[in-house]
Amino acid sequence: MCGIVGSINHNNIVPDLLAGLSNIEYRGYDSAGIAVIDNDGLTTIKRPGKLEQLKQELANQALRSHTGIGHTRWATHGCPNEANAHPHSNDDVSVVHNGIIENYLQLRQWLTAEGFRFQSDTDTEVIPHLISLFLEQGQAPQQALNTALQHLEGAFAIGVLFRKEQDHLYAARRGSPLVLGQSDQGLCLGSDTMALAPGIDRILYLDEGEQACMTRDSFQLLDLNGRAIKRDMQAYTSQQDDQSKQNHKFYMHKEIHQQSDTVRNTFKHTQHLLPELPVDFTRLDRINIIACGTSHYAAMVAKYWFEQIARIPVDIDVASEFRYRSPLLSRNGLSIFISQSGETADTLAALRYTKALGQKTLSIVNVAQSTIARESDFSLQTQAGPEIGVASTKAFTAQLAILASLAIHAADRCKAIQIQESNRLLMEIAALPSLIDMTLELEPHFQLIGESIKDSHNAFFIGRGSNFPLALEGALKLKEISYLHAEGFGAGELKHGPIALIESGVPVFVIAPNDGLLEKTLSNMEEVMARGGRCIVLGDHHSCGNLPLEVESITLPACDKVFAPIIYAIALQLIAYHAALAIGTDVDQPRNLAKSVTVE
Ligand code: G6P
Fold this sequence. Notes:
There is one protein chain. The protein is α/β, with parallel strands linked by helices. The protein has three domains: 240 residues, Aminohydrolase, N-terminal nucleophile (Ntn) domain (Glutamine Phosphoribosylpyrophosphate, subunit 1, domain 1, 4-Layer Sandwich), CATH 3.60.20; 192 residues, 3-Layer(aba) Sandwich (Rossmann fold); 159 residues, 3-Layer(aba) Sandwich (Rossmann fold), CATH 3.40.50. The protein has 18 helices and 25 strands. Strands 3-2-4-1-10-9-11-15 form an eight-stranded antiparallel beta sheet, covered by helices on one side. A seven-stranded antiparallel beta sheet has the order 5-6-7-8-12-13-14. The longest helix is centred in the C-terminal third of the chain and has 22 residues. 6-O-phosphono-alpha-D-glucopyranose binds next to helix 8.
């Protein structure tokens, strides 16, 4: 989703702005732009489409400056064209903005009546004009910004330049994250740490409602009311090395192949932290797990684990729906929030809602400094490293590694299982990385299957038990990156409607480990075949050993049935990846999608 960069330093900042924008391309966007300030005033250059278009435009211009801002936009108000791209500038002020200004229509009417002319359809454009209005009324830049902020409703993060202040870069945060970075060369601004200029060694996250005014050597923080506050930067080591694709065509492919390490590291890290986790599972009578997208499917898998292993009842919610159903939260409950980015607006809003009701909150995030991590009572971090591909892969299996460990830990504490069983389960998790490697070695088989479905109009995924959410995830992965229509179903549910969609040759992926539900899953497969569907079974040697000859299958390594979703996820990711590759889509940055969804 939208990304912000900003830089003020002793050198030319244009290359830093472009490097920052490149690093946040992964968030998903449809236009990009920068604004810089120099003796001639504000210069704003923006282009629809990929960052490359902007870079080409800039290559034709000898643009140099010590102070600038930049943005990648993911369209909300107004289509992705040049006028709607950020920065939005008038003669005196330039603004980049993440989030949504909810009262922009009223502000637009007011500002139009005051004589301002709007060039775009965006909500953002009210901000520079509003600031200009207060400048015209004689307020100093900082004060004009502060007054403008009081008039804005909604969630936002902004970076601001003033024509008359070549040596200042301003920022403000309400609802959407912003981080400042510092190096010996100067200061910079980003919507996440990946956006920050190379070489920074100190960072500071703005807290809710805070503003910052940066010069080349220092910064000042202000609170909601414009009063100065003091907080120091923290030491920071950049993870730039992790950002190359190595020998992979796409980041998603690299990330799929990192999963034996990321699951291993996450499991070890979690085991180390769990004894200190200040949650008394023996007193819990219910767990709520709330998340969006792939993280929501991790939550659905975890429901099976918590209920079957620890015997604790679990409710699962899609974050965007959670607070609107006025949920009845148990007084002795725990709410768990899962988010790769730790910034998803709906998940964050659900966290705040839950906290306000006095419930204990635990987050599982991949970004340690994210807002969800910082605002929850406790946080466990997946050790997946930066996930660049928009479609989540390694973060998903790392989330599952934490959730599995947590369910076993809860079962131990509640004495829901014998110590021998808990040790056995922990050993099974410890063995997963080598099973993941074995599954990755089957890639040529997944590739053939993926390529074979590239012309299909529909694809279906079915599974039972904890592999039902995996069927949903398999379908999501395929539609996200290949744009093929795909749906996942509980295998037994197919006959209650979706079977009407089965016709000759429609691919149906049957997730079928030998898990005690195999016979029933295979009966559902027969129902599909009887109607001409093309069944592709993903199973182990037991389930694939006795299939009818006409059924295609891929034999995955045998694993404990409890943790099969972690192994089968790899197969589904690779099938989706190769289907997308065969179709020729932009696998890492699929159309319309965003990595970090910071609007509701
Ligand atoms: C977006 C991404 C999905 C992701 C979802 C939740 O829609 O495209 O891949 O699963 O957000 O993101 P989170 O960061 O909260 O896990």
